[in-house]
Fold this protein.
Amino acid sequence: MGKHYTKIICAGLAAISVAGAAFAGGCGGFYSSAPLDGEIFTDAPAVSNGGFAVEKGNYVYFINGVEANTAANDYGKPVKGAIYRISKDNLKNRNYSTVDKVVGNVAYSADYNSGIYIYGDSLYYATPSTARNADGVVQNSTLDLKSAKLDGSQTMKNAYVNFPNTAYEYRFVEAGEDKTVYLLYVATEEKLYEESTGVTNLHSYNTKTGADTLLAYNVSSVIFDSEDKTNARVYYTMNVQNYATSSTFGYNQVYTVTADATKDKFEGKLNSETVKGWNDDEDEGEVDRYINCGDLVLDGIGKKDYNSNEASKTVFNYEPDSSVVNELGYTYTLKTYVEGNLFYTRKTSLNSSEYLFSLKDGEIENPILDNPDQNNPEARILADGSKAGSYKYIFDGDGKLSAVIAAEEAGISINKADENGNLHSSSDMGLNDNYFKIVKEGTATLLFADTESELLYYSVSGGNGYTINRIQYNGSYKDYEALPAEDTDFTAVKILDLDADSAWYKPEIIDGYLLFASETANMTSFNYVMVFDFHKSLEDRALMTNEDIRALNEKYEGIKDIIDNTYGDTEKYPVETYANISGALNYAFYAGDYEYLKELAEVCNSKLEEGENYVYSEETFAEYDKFLKPAEDNVWAEYTDTKKVNGSDVYANTRDYYYAVLGEMTEDDEKAYMDGLKTGLVAYPEEAETGWYEGLSVGGKVGFIIGMCAIGLLVAGGAAVLTIWLVRKNKNKRPEMRKRKIKVDTTDDKDIDVYAD
């Protein structure tokens, strides 16, 4: 961008592109609650910090399911989407519903690479705003960034910062000797005038002082650490502006900065004398702006730009006495930042090949001369790094790159680095131990790699969301070429029928427990967090091998086989006798209510006409009882094992034996879930809408008629007696009236002819 921008200081309380005011911690007061019990404030490290579940001390803190930003968010009321905790002891003993609500807000952000953070005695999170505009409309399309005490006793009312939309990228990090918590975030500035397109800025907010620092103005791209979300260092690229022509040069630069930076490195250096075309006179229009608190890492300037007649080397480039070695300028694209290594590609205007390079934090001394020579194969990691942003990078114990794992068009490959840290070309695929496929078919999405156990977790297409599969990735070429043996970890295995919500955070493993937002059967409408225990047993805390999971899969799949096929054998279980048995057993598998099924059977069977088969017969219930209590002498003989889940013994033929809901469901969701299970049963008979008389039995109707007649006679007789009594009573009480006699005129009127016609 060129002109038309107003000035701004590097550090201040007003956050660029952030709606409303920024508040220092506690400035707006707190919501207070009774503190939770337990040893909470410990020095134990926070594990998986920044995910949707974080382990800290004796507890695991987690977001209680997937909730939308439009949900009601009045403090204390949310259940779904609120932040809960479970003690590790309850987690171990499968008391998955014994949880505590820590933060009574919906934890939400459209940046699913950043979740909840724990530092010291506080938990940091994003939540939809509950503020209302002048029309009373809740502004839940904006996000409030807040904190709360780990014991739930205090939660901020106001926010550190309010994001004007839900998609901002952010991290809560610690930086500086005093380990101050900062909010790093990337903000897109709104258009300042009709022709502008807006700019992207990098900010750092100090939660202690409330100071919001504009670290870099008008960045091209920003990349956070892809694994360690608490890393206070960030890398970004910036174009170099030709202010004389209101355009950019044909190269860019790579910078890095930490969250505690406050000083603009170019403050006082930019004016019309040092920058050709620079405008700092407000009388001549909008002034130019350039703010950058970062350190230059790589400068892509080429000889063509350096020797340009229009603009020689700029103040933004490295030291004036540095020699420019490359003819054309470099354009850098940041791919991944992980384990202190920045992986990036670089190309020129004449070379579109994206050569992949890497550098370590602090490794570059001369941003121009230390650019790797792309013509030297040993200087580049890979000739084609176009997909390098999706690689899983594997490092050895010394922090040296040992391999990358990539999702191919079909399957998954591993490319092992040589002694110089370089990867092998595509022409080497499948020929030796350097570069080969460990999964040979399927469209895959890499989830995460457990470098300690050297296991890769991934998803394949075809499920409701993320399916969860795993394979050992440290084998040789022959380990994956041989016929798959059922007892090897080098053969991929799918974990039950688990499906995780692919529009939310990726699944996580914490302390041997797989946590994921469920998209599994009958849970797709609710998306609560579910838990799968990788431990072999309560006594044996070793984690399952792929062989163990295969055996578990076989057992799990056997349940459906018995329900659908064994009981589907109409010769052995004729439908006339065992009506609707499969649906009833499926209902039981998902922990259906036995009492409801009995009630349903009683009502349905009472409606049958003579000769019709029972909807749920005694024989059906006999088989249902066998399901509920597997024994050595019935069809469920292999499912007599039990586990205590949420205080109840569950048999191996029920879902909760394998995986279960973690946390608390709302009453409405619990009812809706159970109603959903009942759709697999015979529909509950609807009572016909009849009048009260039509609903009477024949005897009832006869009794009603006789009764009404008797009542009618009694009423009629009573009315007659009452009438006579009232008349007599009124006569006795009537006042005396003087009788008027008839007066007859006897005088003869001779004028009248009484005989006339």
